[in-house]
Amino acid sequence: MAERTRMFTSIRIGNVEVKNRLALAPMGAFGLVDRYGCYNQRAIDYYVERAKGGTGLLISSVTKVENTVDSMIDGFLPCTDIDPARFVLTASEMTERVHAYGSKMFLQLSMGFGRVLAPALAKKPPVSASAVPNFWDPSVTCRAMTIKEIEFVIRKFGEAAAIAKRAGFDGVEIHAVHEGYLLDQFTTAFTNHRTDKFGGDLRGRTTLPVAIVKEVKGTVGKDFPVVLRFSIKSCVKGFNSGGLEGEDYQEFGRDADEGYTIAPWFEEAGYDAFDADEGSYDAWYFAHPPVYQRHGLYLDHTKRLKEVVSAPVIVAGKNDIPELAESALAERKADMIVLGRALLADPSWPQKVLSGKEDQIRPCIGCHVGCMGRGFEGKHLSCAVNPACGRERLYRIERIAEPRKALVVGGGVAGMEAARVLSLRGFEVSLYEATDRLGGNILPGSVPDFKADDRRLIAYYERQMEVRKVDVHMGARLTADQVGDMDVDVVILATGSTICTLDVPCSHPERMVDAVSVLEGAPVGQRVTMIGGGLVGCETALWLAQQGKEVTVVEMLSALLSAGRPVPFMNKDMLLTMMRREGIREITNTSLLEVTDEGAVLVDNHFRTSTVPCDTVVTCTGFKANDQLFKELYGKVEHLYNVGDSQVAADVMTAVWQANEVALNVS
């Protein structure tokens, strides 16, 4: 294992020394606050777990400095202004415990969301720098903030910083000239049409963030560090329209040159560091990069940023591969690495790197389902591959009092997660997999280059089977009689699912194949019609189009990516944008009727037929549970459990969470 020397050197931000160059990103603390905007026990446990895992600097969730101008529903985000005494009480317990592990903690302070506040979360009509359309509902026009309101908010930043200092925070981060949030809406020309001192030219549009840092420093002193959350560029082609890397487009928001121009102004005003990234809500797949984005996607721009400022540059952007993080620091592309979802997936990421156990890091797979996706559903922050995230106290692994034996049938992620947790609890675990490879349905799903993170997850679980000394039997398909004859105390079935087939007339059966077979190597012609526009169908279609195939996607619903669990917005937006860039044709409200010599015969929801000429029809209309073994054993085997796709064909999060829940609690 390579030595990570730079990563574990200390760094100073203002007058605060941080023990290493790894920071927890400021992610939304959904479900981690009470109705007064103060931290609950879940939040305290969540942050302490990341400090315990070795992270040098923890940056809190976005915390509002007031909730009257940019007003959202109570209890959604932390807020220093609703009950300051209660905020200090709960936050001080958290900072005291974080400090016990040698970590520092900064409180991220925000004036709010402005045009990107979802109307469902707003208590009042949304505000912005100017009268511009709301991101989520363009029919709603935001009200321009008055000078009196702006000056009120500036004062609130100073008051909030004083509250942060009393609560034991080591500094604050200002949210944000970043991602198109309310403060950022004052700095970009496409959202700031003001003619007063807070608008006009580029210098005028930076008046507000400059005034904020001066107010904070004037209130709590120059020695209290103030970091700026800063997007170097917006990556925007227009309202609700983002660009793609490598695409030639006119920047509608802040371009990189503008970012390099204003950063020194902010440093001169008093900001002690830059927490840098790219993107905006209009290009959310840059600000919250999904699986389809490359790792380290901001590093070229942060390297240039370091050439124009002397303050430390902290960088986010999928730098969660240790070798990449170390090289970014060694090559002076950044001074500090922010880990966001990587620390949701594995809060011990820093400690594992430091102790030479990089191959035991549980990777983020870029799905957003357990973190941002749950936020959209009104649920608490967590992680698809780490069910304990956000509920650390409830999901502590406790060892059994006496040795017991467990049988796990199935070597996909559900089976391997069950085996991992059971072994940690002290069970003697045997796992039987019918095929010659571990991974289940993630194996074909991880074939496209843009799904490499899924392959990292499989590698993690394979390594866990070795480390935990799970007795793995490959190529072993068990019958109900064989299971019944085994001397075990617990049986967990995780036998997965199979792709559904379509029973339609087909003149040439060799021209019709399912998506899993295609991903596993089945040949397809130049012209491909994909039947099924769910996540697997769309990803397979994109993969084929990237190989130069001419692809049409046919979906029976009114839009692609509509069935099953909602695909988180940033993943959905980027996938569809990539598909359209590749020229993939979309046909909705339509089903496959038959396959003829001419191609795919379709019928729409008005019973009109049409034919799409093609060489191959690829079907991907869902998966069905492999639950036959469970049905045969139910009522015959004591302590029998069925988890993952063999219970209900769903996704990685469902598989991992069900397996973890059962393995954590069986006795």
Explained architecture:
This protein has 667 residues and is α/β, with parallel strands linked by helices. The chain folds into 3 domains: 9-283 and 299-377, TIM Barrel (Alpha-Beta Barrel); 404-498 and 624-665, NAD(P)-binding Rossmann-like Domain (Rossmann fold), CATH 3.40.50; 509-621, FAD/NAD(P)-binding domain. It is 32% helix and 18% strand. It has 22 helices and 30 strands. The strands form 8 sheets. Strands 3-4-6-9-10-13-14-15 form an 8-stranded parallel beta barrel, surrounded by 7 helices. It has a 5-stranded parallel beta sheet with strand order 18-17-16-19-30. A 5-stranded parallel beta sheet has the order 21-28-22-23-24. Helix 14 (413-424) packs parallel to helix 22. It comes from Olsenella profusa F0195.
Q: What descriptors fit this protein?
A:
667 residues; TIM Barrel; Rossmann fold; FAD/NAD(P)-binding domain; 3 domains; 18% strand
N- to C-terminal distance:
38 Å
Largest sheet: 8 strands, parallel, barrel
- Any idea what the radius of gyration is? 26 Å
Structural class: alpha/beta
What is the count of helical runs? 22
Q: How helix-rich are the residues, as a percent range? A: 25-40%
CATH superfamily of the largest domain: Aldolase class I
Low-confidence stretches: none
Named CATH architecture of the largest domain: Alpha-Beta Barrel
Mean of pLDDT? 97
Strand order of the largest sheet: 3-4-6-9-10-13-14-15
Per the CATH scheme, the topology name of the largest domain is: TIM Barrel
Count of extended strands? 30
Total number of domains: 3
Any idea what the shape is? Answer: globular
CATH class of the largest domain: Alpha Beta
Beta-strand percent range: 15-25%
Family: In the N-terminal section; belongs to the NADH:flavin oxidoreductase/NADH oxidase family.
Protein name: Putative NADH oxidase
InterPro entries: Aldolase_TIM (IPR013785), FAD/NAD-bd_sf (IPR036188), FAD/NAD-binding_dom (IPR023753), NADH:flavin_oxidoreductase (IPR051793), OxRdtase_FMN_N (IPR001155)
Keywords: Flavoprotein, FMN, Iron, Iron-sulfur, Metal-binding, Oxidoreductase
